[in-house]
Amino acid sequence: MTRFLTRLIWSVLTLLGTAALTFFLLNAVPGDVARVIAGSKASSEVIKEIHLRYHLDEPLWKRFGLYLGQLARGDLGHSYVTEQPVAQAILSRLPATLALSALAVILWMALAVPLGVVTARFRGSWFDRAILVVATVSLSLPSFWLARMLQYWLAYKLGWFPVGFFSSFRDLLLPAATLALLFVGYYARLIHTNMVEVLDSPYVRAARAKGASETSVLFQHALRNALIPVVTILGMDLAAMLGGVLFVENVFALPGIGTLAMQSVFNLDPPMIMGTVLFTGALVIGANWVVDLLYGWIDPRIKTEH
Amino acid sequence: MNLLLRNAPVVFGVLSKRGVDNEPLSLPSPRKAGRGWPQAGRGGRVKILWKHCCGLLLAAVVLGSFSSRAADSAAADSTPKRGGTLRLALPTDVTSLDPALAFDTISQPFLLLMFQGLVEYDDGTKLVPCLAQDWTVSADQRSYTFHLRTGARFSNGREVVAADFVYTLEHVLDLKTAATSEAWFEGIDGAKEFRAGKAAHVRGLKAPRDDTLIIELERPDPSFLYILTVPGGLVVPREEVERYGKSFTMHPVGSGPYVLKEWRRSAKMRFERNPLYSHPERQCLDGVEVLVGGDPTTHLMMFERGELDIADVTEHPGIPVPDFVRIQQEPRWQGLMERIPAAVIWYLSLNTEMKPFDNLKVRQAVAYAIDKQKLVQLLHGMVTPANGVLPPSVPGFNTNLTGFPHDPAKARQLLAEAGYADGFTFRLWYEAGNLLLTPPAYSIQFDLAQVGINAQLNPLAMAPLVDSQERRHTVECCLTGWSQDYPDPSDFLDGCLNGNRITEEGCQNYAFYNNPQVNQLLDEAATCQDPPRRLGLYQSAEKIVVHDAPWVPLIFPYVYALHQPWLHDVRLHPVVYFRFERMWLDPRRERK
Questions:
Q1: Residues of A in contact with B264 (CB under 8 A)
Q2: What ipTM, to 2 d.p.?
Q3: pTM (2 decimals)?
């Protein structure tokens, strides 16, 4: 229980730090938000009115305090540009981002696990080397480039997928495949390395000695242990993936949180920027909690220890 | 309108979806028709002969049918058809659909789907009646009496009356609304007192009868009727604005040809016909669907795959430049790309209050040093060189202005005379990531380097850039643009170059140019009631401005509309550009 409380306090402090950093960085950007909201012809009276409405004339610390008070009430505020409640905007875009991310993780893990296991089992073979090359290439690809290339060839030229926009599950396949391709190589190598280490361990030799089948050795005995560090990195990679999601969503015109964040930056819409950053932060923290729970499931020894 | 103060690049990708009553007409099928013929008995020559006769007859019928269809088709191509949903794709959402709050170029075509004002543009820049049937102007040019068209209704069913216009304009002028177009209407008599909270109503707005509206101005303003066309002048019903408050933007109610049926923010907007609208010729389309997201490249791919009806550029190239060149050369798009000069100027603003641009010779040297023809080549002819301030579509455009020709030797000579023989270094500010401005910025940097001037490029995000360039003594030189709000020279010259309008911050005169002679000409023109003389005054002021070179006019862009053959009446308008409510889809053209 104490451990849970400590973890909770640290999570809240992390979010507070994120909020403070984002808030003060945003306010360090030169430019009067009121002028952006009101347009080029707005009179100084209208600008003053907007300053009053959004407390833009108040000292920075006071504004941050007001924002925190608002956050404590569970209110992320309203967009300065569209007047839309920030929470509503984020929630309306959450399904697309979640579906895209989940599908991408499923796709890349479905590819990375067998590739990692097989290359570890046949290490040094031509297949292992070929996968190493593919993994290195996939690691080096920028997300926006890969997204555009896949869109151009598979959607525009061959017509196998829609070019853009989101109307059904099928529309998510190509964007999710893009994200999956970006990560599959890395994870295949990660699983490979861990598997190699585990396959050399005494308990695997013992399993083989007692006559366990190769499939059982690989998938029941070795893989489960090899996956523990992979799950840790998966949790940490969620933040990196959300960065990739931003570009992929934009190329494929998916109405997700990535495009919302991008548009709010272009519009210089502080409440929306704060909202998307905090929400993403909360998502990453939440994902790490889930990863911790998964440890226990993958390796019961961890659950026993704590 | 400051071109940097827009919501997003104004790019539309349009695709259409066949509606229920827009089914393609099926040509008679020979096989189908054949099955309908009576059988000629069993076997034998008679049967063969009969079959041949039938075949010939059938062929004749089918051919005749085809040819008559073709003739019909040719004749009918120009006749507007009802049906079909036009779907647009925008890279970013519109900021608002509340006329009081929307002032970005991206919102305007959608506002005009739903709202109407007292007057509107004809196919050119002439103003014609809209909700006003006619109007009279008093002898002193201060009072306008509008007689409203009877029978016009808001989409909530209530008739539009004069009091609605009084409410609309007071709502715009109310500081609590923080309307983006409020400053346009401050010339109405009593507006200033109302804004200051000293009066409950605007003295100059009167509705003596339901069909009569009187607007009195503080002083004559020849551009006032044009001002009524800006979004703030579009009429809204009081009860709906008060009912929805801030969220009126999500529930807009106007008297235009279409109504908003659905708006999922930053994802999709859908407009459908307003059944209470009385001009069916502006309601050919069943509806308009706007997909939001993606970028111009994605939209162009959709267009080329036949899903899109129009891949469009307005003030900014929505089609990436390399694709633009390719598409211009592809035979299948020949004759399907329309263009019109945009009422936009891109220019180099030289701050006349900051060194070294406070020196006339330095400013002229910069003007001589820049090769505008190269800018035209860089942008593949999507622009024309600018020699003056007023774009070609704005009344008062002066074809005789020659500006400063590209003459590096002359530039070096002027620099030497100004005491800058060894050149100087300055920061050239422009909007980061603006695809239209980035190539010119590099080109200008190169040209200036040829005469010894070191321009350090300073690309900046839109918001801080706008704030900086509107602040006094901050930006020495910026590459920027101005787009008309209405087709009148005052919108460019008075708004951007009148020294009497200089303020410490929020100043549209980025060059902080203050020539008393120009100010006097502009002030005189602002109230001049004689149109030819008024244009003459503006042209005289423009001539002095060009000589003084607070601006180096660079380019006038074109607006482009690339559309599919089945979309008709994509006639670009010189002010509004896109009027979706006047377009129609040909139901007989098969899409991929």
A1: 92, 255
A2: 0.84
A3: 0.81
